[in-house]
Amino acid sequence: MSITPPSPASGVPLSRRRLLQIGAAGAVVLGGSYAGVRLWEDSSPVGPGSAAVAKAEAARHGTGTIVHRELTAAPATVDLGGRTVSTWAFDGTVPGPEIRLTAGDQLQVRLLNKLTDPTTVHWHGVALRNDMDGVPDLTMTSVPPGGSFDYSFVVPDPGTYWFHPHVGVQLDTGMHAALIVEDPNEPGGYDDEVVLILDDWTDGWGDSPQDILTRLGRDGMGGAGMGGMGGMGGMTSPGQPLGSDAGDVVYPAHLINGRLPQAPVTINSTPGRRIRFRLINAGSDTAYRFAVGGHRMTVTHTDGYGVRPVEVDTLVLGMGERYDVVVTVGDGAFPIVAVPEGKKGPSAMAVLRTASGSPPAPGARPGELDGKLLSYGDLTPTAAAALEPLHPDREIDLALGMADGGRRWLINGAAFGDHKPLEIKAGERVRLTMHNQTMMFHPMHLHGHTFAVATSAGPGIRKDTVNVLPMQTLSVDLTADNPGQWMAHCHNAYHGALGMMTVVSYVA
């Protein structure tokens, strides 16, 4: 049976800050006020259920293949490798079940909500149709407990993506999984492929995510056990590329593919084989410095888009970022490590094994972590990934700020709900310039689009999540080719929940 988005008449609780009215025929923007702020004064917003969104979806060239999945969000008891925790998960596993398809396939996923709270699924990094983006009260109504929702959209671009809830701080439970979109014209150059999901863990072990959020909202950055220097932060340096305070929360554990270093995931291979690692940072408050002991890595993609190959020893992934790297495997047993960057806490570890012998000890710190560190400036997009250089039709500033000692995080002086949407029009080349006015880095993510990091030396790399460093400015360019209402926010789950979110609003 086809399931439509729930309507107000169905008894679904609606947010008091509701932006959209959603009916059984589809989402329709009514405009009006939002938390006391008049929106779209003299313009007509392009809503998720508009003809423009349907037209953009119809124009996506599909393969004709439909990939069906059913996804259940429910409480789960999970063994992390010697430590059993109670959490929320997709289909009872952490990470959830990987979804893999080919670019141009249509993905149809029925979400069943068996949680006690409403939830959604956001398809991170995918340039999908707006009404399937999974943002409550912006593109859809949250799926209530006991309810369900059918997601259906063409997945247009190959790459390494992932999916997770977009309600409160549900991301800091076990609800996340990989979405791998294969390239039908994949050039290859590797023998095997491994997906590694990095994650900071507290649910069912330390404080609950909701307790952390409540404490941060009440006490500010002194209220959750600080990750670094008590929230004071500091400027970047070669040894601290994100600054001296890269997070607000000290986690009791860090995982690779849902496993602790004491019982790590083991990747068995043969010397000389080339492995493509797809790296995903699913953490809520932790950037990771990643390395494979005894090996160098060749970086081939960032956020799903190709770059000219660059060899490095180590790289840093902000929350929500992805990298693809290729490693030529040596002979032995090697630690694969993800160290929390700029904050305290244990590391995550997996094992790469091609020979017998003792595994690396938990807490192993290979010398590659102190070797050549990747920077955005080291990367150049491939010809296929490069955005055509055009003068911006519209330039928009985003001031990233903090208020009340970290109780609120702001964009352009306002927390989400008191924000003014950033209006753009279809067909424009838009430059977003982000000014970080805080002493912490912010991994800024834009839904439904990729952008090019603006540079003065040729085309910039294509991404959807980018680290804006403390007290620094970074500009990105995008083509407004996917109409609708799109979230732009910090992918630190707690910064976003405390206000560092806004809306890029297409208007007619």
Structure description:
With 508 residues, this protein is mostly beta strands. The chain folds into 3 domains: 61-179, Sandwich (Immunoglobulin-like); 192-224 and 250-378, Immunoglobulin-like; 394-506, Sandwich (Immunoglobulin-like), CATH 2.60.40. It has helices spanning 51-59, 209-219, 493-497; strands at 21-23, 26-28, 33-34, 37-38, 66-79, 84-90, 99-102, 106-113, 122-124, 148-154, 159-164, 177-182, 192-201, 253-256, 266-268, 274-281, 288-292, 297-302, 305-312, 315-317, 322-328, 333-340, 348-353, 394-403, 408-411, 422-424, 429-436, 442-446, 451-453, 462-463, 465-468, 473-479, 485-490, 501-506. The strands form 8 sheets. The chain has a 6-stranded mixed sheet, with no helix packed on it. It has a 6-stranded mixed sheet with strand order 25-24-27-32-29-30, with no helix packed on it. Strands 15-23-22-17-20 form a 5-stranded mixed sheet, with no helix packed on it. The longest helix has 11 residues, at 209-219. The two termini are 35 Å apart.
